[in-house]
Each structure stands twice: as C-alpha cells, then as structure tokens.
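Go through this chain for my students:
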Amino acid sequence: MLRRSLLGTAILLGCTAAASAQQELKVGLVASLEGAFAVLGQDAVRGAELALKERGGIAGGKKIVFVRGSSDASPASAVNATRKLVEQDKVALMIGPLSGSEGVAVKDYAKTQPAVTFIDGSSGGQETTLVNPSPNFFRFNLDGAQVMAPLGPYAFEQGSKRVMVIAEDYAFPYSQVQGFMSGFCKAGGKVPRKAWIPIGTKDFSSVIASIPNDVDSLLVVLAGADAVNFIKQYDQAGGSKKVIGGSVMVDQTVLSYRGRFRSNLVGTLSSGWTADALETPAWEKFVADYRASSKEAFTAPSYFAFAYYNAVKATLNALDQVGGDLSDGQAKFRKVLAGTQLQSPVGLITLDHNRQAVGPAFITKIVQRPDGKLVSSVVKAVPKIDQHLNMSKAEFDKMGIGSRDVPACP
C-alpha cells in the first residue's frame, strides 16, 4: 500500500509539473545591451518588465517567461540573437529589436519564420514596415520620420532657416532627418550639408570643423554616448549655433548624463513620441510606476522604455483576448493584434494595413527643473500622424523614403 501510495504521489506530482510547464509561454526579448546603445537597451528592458509586472506575469491564462537576447545595435547581432531565441530556445513570440537597421534586418528574418509572431521593440526605421513588410511583424511605435515631421516647419517659424545635419549613419537617423526635412524644406528651409557619423564615434573634431559659417542651426540626430560626446566636444570647441535635437538626443538616456555640457541643452527643440513633463493622468501614472520599478530608473522613462512597454502591453492584451490560443499558425492572435486599439501612456495607438503604428507625437523643449534635472516639456501635441506623414500617398511617394540623400533642399 505504501509503495502504491508513493507511486500515486509521484504520478500526481509529475502530472502537476507537466501541467505547470504547459502553462508557461516563452517570449523572446532582444535589446541592445552591448556597445554605444547599452544604456538605451537597459531602459528598454525596464519598460518591458514593467508591462509584464502590471499583469502579474500572466496573460491568456499562461505564465509569461521572458527569454532574453542581447545585441550591439548592429543588424547582424540582432538577427543572431533573435535566431537563437527562435530556433534554439523555441520562443513562441519575439519582442525587439531596439535600433533602426536592426529592425529592418529582423523584419527580413521574420519572413523565414512564419510560425512566430514578431513585435518590434523600439526600432524606428521607415522601411521596416513601409517597404516589403512581413505579415508576421508588428510595430506599436511610430517610426523616426513620423515623430519628427511636426518639428521642421515649427523650427523654421522659430528662426532656423539654414540647417546642417549631423546624424548617425543608419536607417533610424535617415528617417528622423527625412521627417524633419519634409516640412522644413516645404516651408522654405535649406540644408546645405549633411554629415553621417558611424555609431560609436568618439572624436567629432573633424565634423565640428566642417560646420559651414552660413548655417544658423544644427540638426543633431545622435543617441546615447554619441550624443554626449558630440555635445561635450562642441561646447569645448566654443560652438554657438543653435542645436535642434533628434528625438533620442533629448531623451533621458542622454539628459541623465552628468556634466557641464547639460546646461547647453536647455532650450533645445525636438520632437518625439513622449514628453517628460506631459501633464496627463495616464502619463504621470506611467512615470510613477516606472520610477518605482527600479533603482536605476531615470527621471522619466526613456523612449526605449516607453516603446518596449507598449510592445509588451499590446502583446499581453492580445493574448488575453484569444485566451492564450496560438494555434493555426497564431492566426487568431495576429488578427487581434492587428486590430489593437492600444491606450498607451500618451494616447491612442492603432495599426495601419502594414501593421505599423499610427498615433501622437510631441514637439518639445528642454527645460531645467528646480531640482536641476533636465526634462522635455510640451510645446505642441499632434494627436495622430500616419507613416505618410499625413501627406497623400502620391505626395509622399514623390518625396521617397528617407536616405542619405533624400530629401534634399540645398
């Protein structure tokens, strides 16, 4: 009897363990945790973990388990990290990557893995969803051009007539520059020179020396350590031209750095997905929850925390709606995901026919709080911008996708 009892207990425990394992759903999570964008990737992970924590780690009746992968912001490393999670770790869903050209590469890889659904982390290159989109790739963050489109005409109105571009040389900055120039050039602005910089550049002396005397402003689309190095060196060189910031140049991943150079950022205009000092209940709650989630949290969530938070939240919402059902090639899940009406911390985000986000953007200005912290404050909110920058498709197609040379108004 004792043997039978022990055998029965063992069988019961085995069945319970098996049932528990069946209730786990592995989700791949790739972020840039190496190289010049490591600080960005760390905050991206904080945003993803916050979204999962809000749900108690459960969605669709299953325990969600993140399986992490790391990249160095290069397309090859992002694909390698993603491939490992998909082909070796057998994740059912993928969230990531972080950076623009990484997103284009992972989108292409997604086409070879039709059984897995890919949800973009924060990469913002236009062509990720606008050129040869993958039917199993979804993006809940606006691309780099969408969020910069309102800034061009506004900067022109504020006195910037001739602008030099200083930007990193990959897909996301191409998109940011295109978004800015689309309205800036139309308003009558001129961009006589563009300098494209490799990620991880430490010495900007030659770029600074090449700034034309006849430009009145610099559009600086750099991120992380690259942005900090440029601002420091431009200050040391006695640079005095007005700086207009790309979206992630005035992000908390840059504003949180210590040093005298920070004072030079006060008053900098930019445009992006969020504004640190946005005064709405949803945003203020998000900021409070984010800050409470980690001792390493910034004054406000970076764009990367915000984007990964939205990606995870949309994923978990869809899993709940289908009861965790990923059968039939995840068809039900993808249909729900495509029809998502995501109430993000800054407003409503929906997806277009390419599964690309349509939502709000904010023109911002950097201000210094009484406690000395730098934050972005709202100058103007634009409630809805599509991937054609609210132009007709014909007008957008005539301009073309952002690149080193497009658009041009020398």
